[in-house]
Amino acid sequence: MTSDGLNHAIRHAMNTTATDISEDEQQRFMQAFRGSFTSALRWHHLDDLWERLTERADDGWYIYAIGEAPPAQPADGDRMRTFITEIDQLLRQEHEEDYCGIVYADDLKQPTFVKIYDPNNLGVSCGYSDNPPLPGWLLTRIRPFDLHSEQILPKNRRRWWQRLFSN
Question: Are 104 and 37 in contact (CB under 8 A)?
Fold first, then answer.
C-alpha cells in the first residue's frame, strides 16, 4: 500500500458513517491508533505483554482483524485468552527471527491498545516509511471502526481467523 493508500484508508475510516459509532468515538480511536507505541522487541517482552493482557482479558477488549468487519462488541475473556494463545503460536511459527519486534503496545506494562503486524506482510513496521503497512490485528479497549485496507486479507489468514472465531 502506498502512503496515498494508507492516507485513503485512514480518511475512509474517519469518514465511515456507522450510525452506532459517534464522530467523537472515531476521533478517539484514531488518536489512539496514531499515538506512541513501544515494541515488544524480544520474545520475553512479548511473553510479559501477553501475561498482562491475559490478566486483563475480562476488561472489555476488542479484537479486530484488519480486512474483516470491525467488532461491534468486546470479546469475552475466554475469547481474548484464546486469541492470545493462537496469535502467539502463529507469530512464533511464522516470524522466523530470534527477536519479536512486530507487536507494539501503547504501554507495555498497562496496555490499552496493541498493534500486531502480520509476519507475512511486514514492509517497514517500525521507523519511517512512505509505505507503512497497517497492522494485521488490533487489540484495543476503544471500539474500532473500519480501517479500510486496500490489501486483501490472504486466504490462509481469513481461514485462520474464521477457524478461531467460528463458534
Answer: yes
Dihedral, CA atoms, 80, 140, 49, 165, nearest 10 degrees?
30
Contacts of 33 (CB under 8 A, 6+ apart): 113, 138, 147
| Structural contact between residues 154 and 119, judged by C-beta atoms closer than 8 angstroms | no
H-state helical runs in the chain: 3-15, 23-33, 43-55, 77-94, 155-164
Cα separation, 25 vs 162, whole angstroms? 27
Residue 35: CB atoms within 10 Å: 10
pTM, two decimal places = 0.75
Burial class (CB in 10 A: 0-12, 13-18, 19+), 122: middle
Asked if the model's pLDDT at residue 98 lies above 90, the reply is no
pLDDT in tens, 23-79: 898 899 999 999 999 999 888 999 999 999 999 999 999 999 988 889 999 999 999
The dihedrals phi and psi of 124, each to the nearest 5 degrees, come to -115, 100
